[in-house]
Amino acid sequence: MNTKYQQLPVPDFYDQSLVGQVWRVPYEQRAQQAREWARIHGITHWVKNPLKLHILLIDVMNTFCIPDFELFVAGRSQIGAVEDNQRLVPWIYSILGLASKITPTLDTHRALAIFFEIFWVNDKGEHPTPFSDITYEEVKAGVWRPNPAMAADLTNGDYVWLQKFAMHYVTKLTQKGRYNLTIWPYHAMLGGIGHAMVAAVEEAVFFHSIARSSLTNFEIKGGNPLTENYSVFSPEVTDTHDRSVVLAQKNTRFINTLLEVDKLVIAGQAKSHCVTWSIDDLLNEIWAYDKSLVSKVYLLEDCTSPVVVWINGVPVVDHTAAANEAFDRFRDAGMNVIRTTDPIDSWLLS
């Protein structure tokens, strides 16, 4: 591109005060406004863009982004995800005429999952508490074991198989050297309000789809109850102890799609978990395919926050340092770390 990009204004209907709330997007009204917006601002069909820019929005969902929802990403400010989306939504509108595709990911769970308390019991029949860890040593010693009630639905009644798999699972996690198995509060429940995108972000994505005649492709992750899926590109554990079942596979189709774009911008939640692990997987794929492609990845750092758990005004769990260290590593590897306040041309034309 040899000319500067004309940053677009934010539509009048956008209300920053509503970003942290749940509401219904008025689709028909927004569709009419989007078509008119495209006419007024000369926004063309996405295929006519000389430069293909793809925006990846990781888990921008009520469950992570609305205060008092199941797993709100508070960050150090205690309202991190809300502030992130208050920056993200205007930025999407400002770059509407340039963004070819927007892909939101949706973390997707059901109640009987290996990372929820119902899956595990101790000798007293008690379940682990949310935000606690299940370690390899504890499973090996029998401190925690799979709940026998899970076997009927998850393993066709074979509890012995489930026990062997549980040991295999925590062993795999230990070998990978990431976190222990974390017990999370029930969140991103399929069919629930928490599973939906944040309304203000959904509205912007819908507006983009109509204005640019660009199909929004949602990527679903986390659907298998026997494995975690922090990364949109690959689950934490893919196989079973006896190799009888493939739990989930690397999302090669989506990886290949992203490798073909000119510029990829990534934002979403949480910086310390799903965002970092998705970027990490993508980086490994780039290194294996073509290291030069790393420079076309842009991390929108002021639109993502780390997991920080606050109790009575005190941060009892804080993953900020780990998240920042990961982004430093990505920057050192050649990825671009940008902010919504950066002039678009400063990185667009690079």
Question: What does this entry look like structurally?
Answer:
The chain has 11 helices and 12 strands. Helix 3 runs parallel beside helix 7. The chain has 350 residues and is α/β, with parallel strands linked by helices. A 6-stranded parallel beta sheet has the order 7-2-1-8-9-12, sandwiched between helices. It has a two-stranded antiparallel sheet with strand order 3-5. Strands 4-6 form a two-stranded antiparallel sheet.
For the structure shown, list the relevant keywords.
350 residues, alpha/beta, 2 domains, two-stranded antiparallel sheet, 11 helices, globular
How would the blueprint of this fold be written?
Elements: H1 27-41, E1 53-58, H2 62-65, H3 80-94, E2 99-107, E3 120-121, E4 133-134, H4 136-141, E5 145-146, H5 151-154, H6 159-176, E6 181-182, H7 199-212, E7 219-221, H8 252-259, E8 263-268, H9 271-289, E9 297-300, E10 308-311, E11 314-318, H10 320-332, E12 336-338, H11 344-348
Helix pairs in contact: 1-7, 3-7, 9-10
